[in-house]
Amino acid sequence: MEVMYRELARELEERGHTVIKVYEGDTFGRRKSGEWGLPLASVRTRHRIPTLSSIRQMMTSYRNARKCLRRERPDVVYIQFITFTALYFLLLRYVYKYRLVVSARGSDLLRPNAISLKSLPLILKRADATIVISDALKKRAISLGANPINVYKIYNGLDVEWWRSRPDDCQENMSHRIVFVGRLEKVKGPDILLKSFGIVQARNEDIYLDVIGDGSMKGALQDLAKELGIFHRVTFHGAQNRQYVRTVLHRASAFVMPSRSEGLGLAILEAMAVGTPLIGTRVGGIPEVIDDTSGILVEPEKPEELAEAIRSVLADPSRASTLRQGARDRSLNFTKAACFDRYEQVLKATLG
After folding, report:
1. Which domain holds residue 42?
2. Residue 99 backbone phi and psi in degrees, to 5
3. What average pLDDT score do residues 24-45 get?
């Protein structure tokens, strides 16, 4: 998410806009690079009443946000990922007369904490524009109070040609390799994938699973792989850079996104640009990406159904080839240039 934020800022600067980047860092102040560190406190309660220390911290955050805005005097404030702290900029908008644009990325609307959930209706109702990354998130934003005419869907974008180009060190793989890229958290469904892989592996010895990412479930997933008797066929790569991910995807027989909930994962777009057959669950924005030409959709929480989808791709090279080409073709709908064009249009539109 931070990569997307930085790339959007850089692109807007290249198009002639002045961009001031603000991060919720540990230390308040303007850095030599021109960026700001701006710690923003959230409310903490005891017996449903804000604590005194929380109130003091929020007052400090409010004063610091005001200092930042007074110094920079922005025309538009853009917030990527909506939480309780967006309220600071909603309140200060009436002081400094800027436009407020908030951008929902997924879990901020689908799985907010209790404090953020209470503040979301006010933020979404009063923001000048809300940007979402899928139709599923658009519906969610509207259900929480956003004005439909102020909600704009902009799919994530990526450098399709870079992902499509085959790395020099990428050799042909003689075995089948299934790839998962994402946080190792329950919401992403990696445990479901391990169970599905166990089912497939029992009938196909020439198959391996690459798990790229890190998270709180890593240890539990390794234990599960041992319990299922598949640990020797699963590689836990940890978090990796995009060059590494691209190489693994180019060797893959299929990419699997078994999420229980999803806004619109960037990883699935990256796999699509590479031309990897896609298998994903019917949740959130995934069905907006995977169609019959590029992959297979399955129900969440269904290891047997997911296993059958994996088997169907591995058992039919002709179908796999068709899905590879379909994925490459479909990825052209998710280019970085089109994404940034749309962001610029929306940000300009808020100014009238």
Report:
1. 2-157+336-349
2. -90, 140
3. 89
